[in-house]
Design a protein that fits this description.
This protein has 23 helices and 13 strands. With 589 residues, it is an alpha/beta fold. The chain starts with 8 loop residues before the first helix and ends in a 26-residue tail after the last strand. Residues 1-67, 423-427 and 583-589 have low confidence and may be disordered.
């Protein structure tokens, strides 16, 4: 990044304290894309560049349809930006990355000032395996907000997409601005300082004392973010990420965008569709995040964590997990050997609210496992039915550990707890997932989150309370990206788009799928009859439909259905194991 600015601590505190308490606190030459347009833009003659911008705007307006003023403005804005040349090179000496290429490019921090400060965007690609048959580039986004696309492509692209898709497309991942290696938003000068603030804070509050502690920490985190990364915060809206993606589309030489977005990535897809409707070739939108719920454009003044209905989605999937465990029986589901899985698990959770379980970790230390820890562990392991066997085994171990006759000796920590503990040690600043703070409606009632949580818990026991606290940090951040977009969301994309929803999804509830599809003039909706978050690696049927659509633009009939390859509690040897789910970040912003 070059030519950045910094806001002083004094200004940040002044801005923060200016918010009324009741409204307040937590929680070479460029390559050508459009021929004469880009050639004119790289000319030193500003008049010629401006004329080119007007010309491009008019051309795009024709594609987008009469009266689409937003598309006209965005096309004209895009035309004023010189298209960067991507310096693709090796990703380093790691043999695992030998097939990939990496690069970084500079994009305008503010698209209203195309020759001003810039932001660095990190990229990677898996080149098409049959270059002579190459169709173009498939852009991807793994979710979040805050999900780094570089790591997603490097770890899953070879398995997430069929050989035919990989043969004909370069698979491209990029870290969105403010995330990963793309000038990340951080909230403290060092990881240790952020860790010190967050250490000992429960995953979500259960008591009044914990709620007070949680709120204070969120307020401090907000001030830290505003102090450390004010210049990055004010420009990292999804709208600017969509503009970045269109600039990258031009940089790779594609006339139109081919895109696969998962979870929050469907929100990015919806934003791109609004801005550049005439530049859509194909959109695969899997695990749909309702734009109205996320942004609050439907007028809902509840916190974003409540609006997203993740509590309800998780509660539904949790009940499916318990029912499938009971159906599988003790031979396949360890939890069932203690009785009805629902009764057994509810008894365990009730005990944990007042009596944590002491566990021995692999390094010999002990840790206390709380109610909040177990609820969060359940939530994340609901993301794919392939994880349900281990989840049931872990819960069964905890049931055994909580038995009245159990000795005082600490229980060896179950596999799922060890993995959860390891994830917590991986440092990524909380700031990289705070896009809702600068682009979504806030409740304006930070001190009412306990009430919101109580209400959510009645609707969706355990998970409603957990998700209700998401976004409280934002209540203490009086900052907005003035170039964001909050609706209306219906678009004028003429190309068919593929919208995929899983019947029992804990993170992006299935009930949002059809309303999301209806935002597009020609959406073809596929329902995955099964469980978990997104169809990635879970359904050969869905893979075939996605491949036909991306490669040959053959969209399936609307309201198609697909089954999952692996049913819950099915041994891996008898079914295709699904991929690690890349869209976990949505659960944690």
């Amino acid at each position: 990044m070059r030519k950045t600015t910094r806001t002083t601590l004094g200004l940040v505190l002044a801005a923060t304290l200016a918010v009324p308490a009741a409204a307040g606190p937590l929680a070479a030459v460029a390559t050508a894309d459009a021929g004469t347009t880009d050639a004119a833009e790289t000319s030193a003659d500003a008049g010629t560049a401006a004329a080119a911008g007007r010309s491009a705007g008019a051309a795009s307006a024709t594609q987008a349809g009469a009266g689409d003023a937003l598309a006209i403005r965005e096309a004209a804005k895009a035309a004023r930006v010189a298209v960067p040349k991507i310096p693709w090179a090796s990703c380093g000496t790691d043999p695992k990355l030998a097939k990939f290429q990496c690069a970084s490019v500079e994009v305008p921090t503010d698209y209203d000032q195309p020759r001003g400060a810039t932001t660095t965007i990190a990229l990677t690609k898996l080149p098409a395996s049959k270059p002579a048959e190459r169709i173009g580039t498939l852009f991807t986004n793994p979710g979040g907000p805050g999900g780094p696309g570089v790591g997603f492509v490097q770890t899953t692209a070879e398995f997430a997409y069929t050989p035919e898709v990989r043969a004909k497309f370069d698979i491209l991942g990029f870290d969105p601005r403010g995330v990963g290696k793309s000038d990340p938003v951080t909230c403290f000068p060092t990881a240790s300082e952020e860790t010190a603030l967050l250490t000992g804070v429960p995953g979500f509050p259960l008591t009044a004392k914990e709620a007070k502690q949680f709120t204070v920490v969120n307020a401090k985190l907000a001030v830290g973010c505003l102090t450390t990364s004010p210049d990055r915060l004010t420009h990292y809206s999804t709208a600017n990420v969509a503009r970045d993606m269109d600039l990258l589309r031009r940089a790779v030489g594609d006339d139109k965008l081919s895109y696969a977005g998962y979870s929050y990535g469907t929100y990015l897809g919806a934003t791109y569709a609004k801005f550049f409707p005439g530049k859509v070739r194909a959109l695969v939108l899997d695990g749909t995040l309702s734009p109205e719920w996320y942004s609050g454009s439907d007028g809902d003044r509840r916190p974003v964590g409540v609006r997203l209905r993740q509590g309800e989605g998780a509660a539904d999937t949790y009940q499916q997990f318990l029912a499938e465990c009971k159906k599988a029986g003790a031979a396949a589901c360890a939890l069932a050997k203690y009785g009805d899985p629902s009764t057994v698990t509810e008894r365990l959770l009730a005990q944990l609210k007042t009596k944590p379980i002491e566990l021995q970790m692999p390094d010999g230390t002990t840790t206390k496992l709380t109610y909040q820890d177990v609820v969060q562990t359940i939530f994340f392991n609901l993301y794919g039915p392939d994880a349900w066997t281990d989840l049931a085994a872990g819960l069964a171990d905890l049931v055994a550990a909580s038995a009245p006759a159990r000795t005082a000796k600490a229980l060896k920590a179950p596999k799922i707890v060890i993995e959860w503990n390891r994830r917590k040690e991986e440092y990524t600043s909380a700031g990289s997932s705070l896009q809702p703070c600068i682009e979504a409606r806030q409740s304006g009632r930070p001190l009412a989150y306990s009430q919101f949580a109580d209400d959510a818990d009645r609707r969706a026991p355990h998970f409603g309370r957990m998700r209700a606290w998401v976004g409280q940090t934002c209540e203490f951040m009086p900052v907005r990206d003035t170039d964001d977009f909050r609706g209306p969301w219906k678009n004028s994309v003429k190309a068919p788009v593929l919208v995929i929803g899983t019947r029992h999804d804990p993170a992006t509830p299935y009930q949002a799928t059809r309303p999301y599809a209806d935002l597009y003039p020609d959406a073809r909706m596929i329902t995955i009859e099964g469980f978990g978050h997104t169809a990635l690696g879970n359904s050969t049927c869905a893979d075939a439909k996605i491949t036909a659509y991306l490669v040959g633009l053959k969209a399936p009939a609307d309201n198609s259905t697909c089954a999952q390859d692996r049913k819950p509690f099915t041994p891996a040897a008898k079914a295709r194991a699904s991929l690690p789910n890349p869209a976990l970040e949505l659960a944690g912003f």
